[in-house]
Amino acid sequence: xxSETEESASAPSDELDDARVDERxxxxxxxxxxxxxxxxxxxxxxxxxxxxxxxxxxxSENTLKAYAKDxxxxxxxxxxxxxxxxxxxPEMIGLYLADLASGSGPSRTLSVSTIDRRLSGLAWNYAQRxxxxxxxxxxxxxxxxxxxxxxxxxxxxxxxxxxxxxxxxVATLPYDLRGLRDRAILLLGYAGGLRRxxxxxxxxHKDDTPDSRGWIEIFEKGxxxxxxxxxxxxxxxxxxGSKDQTCPVHALExxxxxxxxxxxxxxxxxxxxxxxxxxxxxxxxHVARLIKRTxxxxxxxxxxxxxxxxxxxxxxxLRAGLASSAEVDERYVQKQLGHASxxxxxxxxxxxxxxxxxxxxxxxx
Length: 365
Known about the structure:
Low-confidence stretches: 1-19
Order of helices and strands: HHHHHHHHHEEEEHEEHHHHHH
Strand content: 5-15%
Largest sheet: 4 strands, mixed
Helix content: 40-55%
Number of helices: 16
Strand order of the largest sheet: 1-2-3-4
Structural class: alpha+beta
Shape: globular
């Protein structure tokens, strides 16, 4: 799948120059240094490096990449308009938001949610550079309010992968090493209601690797996943299924056994011929590609053109599928997904008994 890109009217050489400037600006903004009045030393330099590592860990890798792209796009926009990106100018940012919403410039029109995210990215980047961006300033707040009022639409939700869908998807996978891995990814992600980043960041044991975001423990009745998720540490229980062919825990055991993995990342790349497990951890984009490929192979929503089918499903389709298919009390689904509120869980439920509570009759009508 192709990633979204911004259209540009500039020449390739200008784009290269802009990229170099943006990269230099980003490196300068990310630097954490000693105050000018403090003398450097070996100990202090080590503390600076430690502080930099903590600063990088303040947000996920994907969030940091998104914020970096937000800043690069805004800085480039300012240069094209003959303006300066520093210090922050609420008036210029208001114009920037209007440009994004109207599509009057070379870039395509963005959705309200993306514009809001862009603004959050700018606020974060300004904070790293020692500036405070007042989002309540009238030049920003009133423009954004107008954009939301004029262009806001109901959120476009990804299609849920239901129980019959996931069974059809795993049935398309072969029983070679790569197929065993991908089967475990799909079943574990579905039964656990996991984000794709949570799936690929699992280790076999606690503290196996520095980039781990969780680990697994396998018991007679199921598997326990301890995750360092977006909302903090949480435990996810995944019970064994009714039969081995569709059991996520059995699929996980089969993959670990035949891949000979007893340490480090759970889900890793395989050799080109598919006969050996390598050491490199899978990227979370593999999960998205796997979902889209098996959706096509399984013939799900085959009445639609291929492009539309691919756009309907993503990594979130696994979480939405669990929320929509599990016939249990809502609070158990909420706990499994790690949501802070039931309202958030309901957003993931694509099908549910919407009129189970009839307040019309309860009110006497």
